[in-house]
Known about the structure:
Number of strands: 0
Distance between the termini: 13 Å
Number of helices: 8
Shape: globular
Strand content: under 5%
Radius of gyration: 19 Å
Amino acid sequence: MLLGYWILGERPRRADWAATTAILAGLLLFFGEGLSLQGLVGNLAAIASGVAFALMMVCMRAEKDGDPAEVVRLGSLVSAAIGAPWVFLESWTLADAGVILYLGLFQISLSFILYAHAIRRVRAVESVLALTLEPVLNPIWVLLVLGERPGAMAVLGGTVVIGAVLGRALFGALAAARAPGLDIDASTVSHDPGSNPFK
């Protein structure tokens, strides 16, 4: 949200702040039981990963008038180049290759193709809020496939996150319906570099 404002000039709305606050509370409930100082290094790495991912989303949104998928292609090539040496250190089976091929073609590629299509039409903050559904829905797939039941706090936190994302989407749809001629594209949003995004 802050990166989208500072870099793209897309000022967050009150509904964005409300949804973000609710989502953060839900994620805290969802992951709270597993957080500890013993995993400090892993937690710091996860935070760094989140910041890097947010920067990628902002870069994709910055290419809304071009081809946002170029950002993904460039990132994939760099990642492949960095990870290539470790590929040859592993012993591969046909099953391993099949799983990686499936993940590369569908789980990752298809997701980014759809996301690159969507990022042209919604602001960066709205796209990131929708992405918070991914970790919340993971336990549902685990429950359906493996039968593992999530804890009560995880269910409560997931419910809060899903409700906040759906509520923000509904608010945006109702606002667009009330003002169908209003262009909410970032190019129409004035941005003063010295202004405060919290206002």
